[in-house]
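notes to self, project folder thing:

trying the whole complex as one job this time. last attempt i did each chain seperately and stitching them together was a nightmare. three parts in total, labels are on each line so i dont mix them up again. if this works i'll redo the older ones the same way
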Amino acid sequence: MKRIAFVVLVIASLLLAACGNATADSQTSEDGVVTISFMMWGSPEELDVWNQVVADFEAQNPTINVEVDVSDWTSYWEKLNTNFAGGTPPDVFAMDAPLYMDWVTRDALLNLQPYIDANPTVLDGIYPITLEAYQLEDGYYGLPRDFQTIVLFYNEDMFDAAGLPYPDDTWTLETLREVAQQLTLDTNGDGVIDQWGFSTDLWDMELFWSEAIWSYGGEVISADHTQTLLGEGGAADAWQFIYDMAITDGSIPDPDTAGQFGGDPFDAGVSAMTTIGHWAVPQYATRGFNFDVAPFPAGPSVRATSVNSAGFVIAAESAHPDEAWQFIQFAIGPTGQTRLAELGFAIPVLQSIAESPVYLDQAIAINQQVFLDALDYAHPKPVFRGYDQWSTEVGDGFYTVWTGETTLADALAQIIPAADAVLAENQ
Amino acid sequence: MQDGLKPLGREKIALWILLAPSMIGLLFGTIGSIIATTGISMFQWDLISPAHWVGLQNFVDLVTDAGFGEALVNTLVFSAMYVPGVIVISLLVALLLNTKVRGIGIFRTLFFLPSITSAVAVSLIFSWLYARNNGLLNYMIGSMGGAPVNWLGSDMIMYSVVIANIWGAVGEGMVIFLAGLQAIPKDYYEAATVDGAGGLAKFFNITLPLITPAIFFQTILSTINAFQAFEYIYMLTRRGGGDSTIPTIVFSVYREGFKWFNMGGASAQAMVLAVIITVLMLVYFQLEKKYVVYE
Amino acid sequence: MKKNQPKWLGTLLTYALMLLGAAIFAGPFLWMLSTSLKFPADQYTRTFIADPATLENYANLLRRLPELPIQMWNSFYLAALTTIGQVITCSMAAFAFAAVNFKGRNFLFTLLLITFVIPPQVTLIPNFIIFNWLGWVGTQLPLWVPAFWGGAFGTFLIRQYFLTIPRELAEAARMDGASLIRIFWDIYLPLAKPALAALALFTFLGSWNDLLHPLIYMPSDMQKTTITVGLSLFQTQYGGQWTIMMAGTVVSVLPIIILFFFTQKQFIQGIALSGVKR
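result (full assembly):
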């Protein structure tokens, strides 16, 4: 009997522990305090900074309480979708610009235009190009909170070892190709290449191939989002250029090789250059090599790079849209933007903060100005309905080209109709 | 299958008590899984806007959906290789570890480790193993004079993925077979030795028949696991924006529902999967009657 | 094997094969362990020994995720509750399905197995809606309460095991006037201890490693969430902080290894009879 009593005691205490944590935080107003829920993706450091932003906000707005809910990137979308499907969407949540259209077209987002009209100065001082992605015919359904431009990162140690000058604003794509070849080496003489001149993600357009296409004067997609333009004119030349670098020269490691290094050979210290955004900076800084940044090399037609942003949106069904708006307003205001700059992952959309020492003189001493200057020649990353499916067709389609199994022509012939089909479905 | 005891009189209450919790679970499961999935499969739902009825349209669409067809084929091919592979290798491992040598407990634990190694770590190690240029496997092949194999290329990727999954499942299979082996009475083997039987004869006449119940259990488990295989495959074949080069049905379901916002289609795919597995299970139960030896 | 071959050759061969197998199966885990002891700059080296070695990853882990111990406790008691719930309710139902004759038995059992077969990706949302309707979203209830209403895997496993217990035992007890509950409690359950231990291990493991359900159902309050959710935050979109991720994984996995090592005798003997002997 004693044993049974013991077992019962154990179960009871476990239940008590569970029930102790079981109660959900009350969402109802008490003493006029409104609680809004805020969902976003991020790492523990980002969570810390956002908790600080929230604390500052709550200090300024004692009647509003913000619950922060952060998940990792993949789980975030599952959780978000599940909450929406279940009828409990968060009030404010983070949005990735390319996926924005999928949410707008499902009537999930609140039109912020009335709030903007009531506060005409709220968008002052924000880089106009970052706003483009969110602007629709009948107004803004979201606003950017930070932006990313893609620039050229380079490993100073490798350049020093080879006695080559660092990249600068005179570089063209041809220069990139030449230098990459020179920096693709077998450093320990065992007959196997262990250092590559250049590495980048060739699956998604943002890191390299959309820029390459624009630099050659081509386009990725037609302005009305009905046609995939990857095979035409400048775009075709751009693909040939990438193919030459990757396959002919062998200076870009193929995806499988890159996979051995966790996906980013530059991060692993085996490639001399890469094109990526500011979010990689904190990570690279822990790697033990010296690096800096330079403008994206110019193409035969123009110099081009990609600008993307993460933004905030409000759920259309939110019970507290006014309070949610106030939080967004705060996040894109000076205090919020300062905190974001301190984080070091992304670049503030508020010009005054971006061009201030808070951003420019960060702890990690690289040429931060390059990211800002990039805005002068940046194209916004295309945003359209069905983006995910479309980029899957394209990314997967090109995959076997980079592993050397398919020719460029065959790949394009297969990809473009498939991609167009996706666009057609999503009109 | 035995008939069992008949509940007497007021014992019906006892029966209800025993079954009550599971009945609640069954209710929840039937509604939450079977009915809900069947229901949603007949709607067009993007998770946010109100759903609208489309009847069997989602199923009709599946017939012409190349992505789904590919996923279906991948899943079937994968399962056909994986299930026998797991059973055979787990059995061999169990046979190996069915000894009383010193430290056997530690060895068994070591063999079980894949089941608790993080999938992320596993994916990285396997990418080193399978790499075309610097990979461990090709290195070993090279030192024996062979040509490097493109393990992750479209020709070999299915085999590579099957190997990885078998690797991960052997630990649990080994446990099930070890148990089965240890339950076989030693006197059978002794009697066989007296009769002059050799090792192989003992295996085929004693061990194998008496282990069929464990094989049966493991077959069902592995089949269900094979059809729901997701993690390792995804990890090894993941590309860019979260896609996979060998989508399986489960991956296709996930992608359809959560990335392409077509919950109706995803549910339809899940229904197809469920039907296939159920049919297989019925086949297995028929085979049980014929082949499985209960003492 | 020839009868003339010395015994030690066989033992040697056995050891050799075991070592080879252990290297194959345990290798990745050992690499995981050693990576957690490496400096971030060395994280892609393929060596098994961390040299130079450091404990800074563990320190960093605790620094960046100070709630780690609390989360481990949360994971633990949720897993423990789940395990208790499953063991109790599955064994009850398994007894009914294995030893009692009642109308609709086969139908119900088949229904149970079918619920098992539908992929979780599509049941996630319907389940969420049901829990939402019950008002349980945002609490820990969806994570352990369902364990108390049975489950297909557990019921199937225990039922297989119960089927091997000789019917004569039950019938004899019957003739002595024992009730169903008595037969369940005094005969079947004690004989089934090993299978119950097996179910306990698998259930605990499943709950401990579960990422999706704590993530969906609980607010990401670092104090209340589980260790899987806490560690998932280190997996960024372009992840690559392997050393600290491995440290986190090692920490989260050690309790399971300890659990396995101590129970492996129990349940190897246990699953022994599940579906094997009659």
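what i see at first glance: The mean pLDDT of chain C is 81.
need to look closer tmrw
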